[in-house]
Description:
The protein is built from twelve helices and nine strands. By secondary structure, the protein is of the alpha/beta class. The termini are far apart.
Amino acid sequence: MASLNIGFIGLGNMGAPMAVNLxxxxxxxxxxxxxxxTADGVEVAQTIAEAVTGADVVITMLPNGSILRQVxxxxxxxxxxxxVFIDCSTVDVESARNTSEAAEKSGLLSVDAPVSGGVGGxxxxxxxxxxxxxxxxxxxxxxxxxxxxxxAVHCGEAGxxxxxxxxxxxxxxxxxIATCEAFALADKLGLDRQRxxxxxxxxxxxxxxxxAYCPAPGVGPTSPADNGYKxxxxxxxxxxxxxxxxxxxxxVDADTPMGARALELYKAFVEEEDGKGKDFxxxxxxxxxxxxxx
Length: 294
């Protein structure tokens, strides 16, 4: 594809490597981050307006819906008609829809496209994008998704990408807790962790949390558990996503008892214990150290 002018707002742990991959692919990328962070091959912009003026595409990777709304309100006013606004943040569905509506009213194509794959996936260009927006908007964004990731799924209209991400991560949070509980129980039953993995990973207990991201050190493929639970996906980010899942569930009156309980457990782990700054799979040592009445 022809070289594009891309404005990238949010050069954090995820945004910076995504922007780097776009620059490596030959696109001219101007980046802005409120913290002043930079990325290799990405031109530094001093303001949001400077980053997005004249851009063919603007991509945002931001912490929450409130910040997205603020950034989008400023960015959209400086973007040219017909440009593409892609938000890769994980935010509430309402903020995603509000942003898309504002962009479309200004003559822009808009896609909400949260990602899965973590920092490693961002660096390797192997992210999965869950996209919401019109067919035309998705088609315009798809070549960039191919650079930053290995798969992009068009989930539906505006907000559908966020809906898919929220549902996916509610499953992830609940299954990680169940996986950690099983290892903690196996310990107390005297069952070797490797032998439990060998059984479960090829039986009906199979899951991504067990097989690809095992929370037990030295078991299965290399994971954050083998690096002192240094975050690949931080517990506080899982807490955020589970909060979004329950906010969405309340909005549409959905019964999600497992998701609600997972939220309670990660909230205690992050806010009352020592979970902040650790990988979300560090729920295993937490549970292994506790008795049934804890």
